[in-house]
Amino acid sequence: MRVQIGKTPAARPAPLIWLEAGLGGSMHSWNLTFPILCRAFHCARSTRSPILYPEADAEVTWQSLVTEMREGGEETARHLGATFDNPLPVVMVGHSYGAMLVRVWAAQLLKARAPSRVKPVGIVQIDPSFEGNSEGASPLYQEIEQKILTWIYRGAAREQPSFYMAWKDLQEIDLLDRRLPQLVISAAHRRNGKTWRGLTSFARAIDARLVRADSSRHLLQVFDPVTVASQILEFTTSVHEQLANKDF
C-alpha cells in the first residue's frame, strides 16, 4: 500500500481524513478533492490492491483489503506521532466499495481488545455500492443479475458475488453504527427510485445525514468534487468541535 499524506500550515492535525477508493483502489480518484481537504485538515489517501484487476498471482478479497487498510492506517498514524495511549482520531471516508471497507475497518477497531494507534471518530460514505444491488435477493435473482452484468460489464459481474458476500458479512458484524456520526453522500438518483429509497432507509437506520449530490455519476469525487469536498469538510469540522469539547 502506498499512502500520501497532505497537510498545510493552516490545516488542523486532527481528526485526520482518510480517503478510501472503490474497486480500483487508486488514490488518483481523489485528485480533485484531496488538495481542497488538505487546506483544512491533515489528510491521507492510499493506493491499495485493486480488487477488479489484481496481479496474476494475488488473491484479493474484501477481508484482505481491510487488513491492508488497517496496517496502512496504523503505519500512517505512527508516522504522524500517534501512540497506543494517544491514538489518532480519524474520519474514514469511503467511496463505493470502499464505503463497505471503511465500515468494516471501523467496526473491527471499535470491537478490538488489542490497542490501536487509530481511533475512528466518524464515517463518510460516498454513493455506497451495497445499496441498490439487490442485497438479500434470492439466489436465482442474483444469478440472473450476474448474467446480465456479464453481458453489460464483465468486471462488475466478476465482483457481484463480493458485493453480496460483503453485505451479508457486514450484517453479521456488530457495526456499532450508532457510536459514530455518519454522513452518506448519494449521487443524484431519482427520488422515487429503488436506490434512493434504499439509501434513505439505510441512512435513517444508522442515524446518518443523507446528502444528494448534483451529479448522477457514480464517481462523485470526480464529477461533483465541490459537493463532496464541502460536505466532508463540514462533517469533519463538526467532529473536530466535538473532540475539542471532549464530547466523544
Describe this entry's structure for a reader.
The structure is a single chain. The chain is α/β, with parallel strands linked by helices and 248 residues long. The protein has one domain (2-131, 177-244): Alpha/Beta hydrolase fold, catalytic domain (Rossmann fold), CATH 3.40.50.1820. Helices cover 43% and strands 19% of the residues. It is built from eight helices and seven strands; from the N terminus they run E-E-H-E-H-E-H-E-H-H-E-H-E-H-H. The protein has a seven-stranded mixed beta sheet, sandwiched between helices. Strand 4 (88-95), helix 3 and strand 5 (118-126) form a beta-alpha-beta unit. Helix 2 packs across helix 3 and helix 4 packs antiparallel against helix 5 (154-172). The chain is globular and about 50 Å long. The two termini are 30 Å apart. The mean pLDDT is 83.
Task: Map the helices and strands.
Elements: E1 2-6, E2 12-20, H1 34-38, E3 41-47, H2 62-79, E4 88-95, H3 97-111, E5 118-126, H4 139-152, H5 154-172, E6 182-186, H6 194-205, E7 209-212, H7 220-223, H8 225-244
Parallel strand pairs: 2-3, 2-4, 4-5, 5-6, 6-7
Antiparallel strand pairs: 1-3
Proportion of residues in helical segments? 40-55%
**Oligomeric form of this entry?**
single chain
Number of helices: 8
Low-confidence stretches: none
Task: Tell me what portion of residues adopts beta-strand conformation.
Answer: 15-25%
CATH superfamily: Alpha/Beta hydrolase fold, catalytic domain
Report the strand count: 7
Cα Rg: 17 Å
The termini sit apart by 30 Å
The main sheet orders its strands as 1-3-2-4-5-6-7
Number of domains: 1
**Which architecture name does CATH use?**
3-Layer(aba) Sandwich
Q: Helix and strand string, N-terminal first? A: EEHEHEHEHHEHEHH
